[in-house]
Amino acid sequence: MPAESVTPARNAPAERSRTRDEKDVQAPARPKRTFKDWLADNGALVGLVLVCVVMFIATPAFLTVPNLLNVGVQAAVVAILAFGMTFVIITGGIDLSVGSVAALSSIAAGWLVASAGLPGPVALLAAPLVGLLTGLVSGAAIAYGKLPAFIATLAMLSIARGLALVISGGRPIDMPDAVSALGGDLGPVPVPILVLLVAWAVTAFVLNRTVFGRSLYAIGGNEEAARLAGLPVKRSLAAVYALSGLFAGIAGMVLAGRLASAQPQAASGYELDAIAAVVIGGASLAGGSGKATGTLIGALVLAVIRNGLNLLNVTAFWQQVVIGLVIAAAVGIDVLRSRR
After folding, report:
1. Which of 63, 157, 229, 251 has its CA 20 to 30 A from that of 73?
2. Would you state the pLDDT for residue 77?
């Protein structure tokens, strides 16, 4: 009996040593992050700071409070469109219809007030609903009809713009005060900036804090693997295009509020700016990556460049050239990042 009681005590240090060794093997030291890693994660923010510094050097009027608020207002519509586009691009898709859907949503809301006699606040709900339904049609065609996203949304681009022209007769529709208020101020802050911040918060919450949002990254990374893992891939794909349409409807109302009218040709070409904002913000067109904050920074980069060029009296034609170069550079960086 005494020998048996002594033996475990003699072996205990060796057992504890083996336990420590096993823990050391199971928990290797985490590699240190390099400056290159940090720059890859925060490249959009660095780019925004550099652009702001350059614009301030070129024209000191840039860093004034009124002008910075103006930049926020200019970025609002594109950023809201881009938040919806972020969901789509994370899944590896594309939505070319958001500009036309924004115009159709505002025109439909204006028509309900001007011709159907509905109260003004109804327009605030009607436009996002029209956008959501339009996006759901595109999403259903892509997810269940197996149409390529490029073709389905390109068709919706034409359909939505055509319906906006048909409903309005090609003429602007005056918006009620409830909508025009979206183009005003709430205290010292313009309302479009407040809508922008709410849209950013909702997008960030959905992507980071919900099962649906996290599943989008899995679908964009490998759709077949996500399906085998039991994720509802088709429903999720239909939902992201519906969300894109919903954000487009909200953006259409913000734009109509700024113009005090719904324009059938409004937001023409905005889909390219929305895609550019998402890519500049660090998302990959191949899918599987993207962040709400990155998209916001990307939209601000575009707005800062346009605002600075306006302050420098650069013509609109050259502004298009500069924006095109920025988009090309962003896509090139995305390609290099993907290869690495």
Report:
1. 157
2. 96
Q: 201 in a domain, yes or no?
A: yes
Residues contacting 268, CB < 8 A, separation 6+: 99, 103, 161
302: Cβ contacts below 8 Å, ≥ 6 apart: 75, 78, 273, 276, 277, 280, 323, 326
Residue 51: burial class (beta carbons within 10 Å; 0-12, 13-18, 19+): middle
Residue 10 lies in a domain: no
User: How far is the C-alpha of 239 from the C-alpha of 105, rounded, in Å?
Assistant: 18
Range(s) of the domain holding residue 147:
43-56+64-339
**Residues in Cβ contact with 296 at an 8 Å cutoff, skipping those fewer than 6 apart:** 79, 83, 196, 200, 281
Q: What is the pTM of this model?
A: 0.87
The count of domains in the chain is 1
pLDDT for position 31? 62
Q: What is d(CA 246, CA 133) in angstroms, rounded to the nearest whole number?
A: 8
Write down the pLDDT at residue 3: 47
Q: Please tell me the distance from the alpha carbon of residue 262 to that of residue 174, in angstroms, as a whole number.
A: 6
Terminal Cα distance for the chain, rounded? 65
Give the integer Cα–Cα distance in Å for 330 and 290.
Answer: 14
Q: Which of 298, 294, 249, 239 is nearest to 272 (CA)?
A: 298
Q: Is residue 20 part of a domain?
A: no
Question: Which is nearest to 49 in space by CA: 314, 304, 331?
Answer: 304
Examine residue 233 and state whether it is found in any structural domain, yes or no.
Answer: yes
Helices (H) and strands (E) in the chain, counts: 14, 4
Q: Write the single-letter amino acid at 118.
A: L
Q: What stretches in the chain show pLDDT beneath 50?
A: 1-8, 21-23, 25
* Amino acid at residue number 267: A
Distance CA 39, CA 26 (A): 30
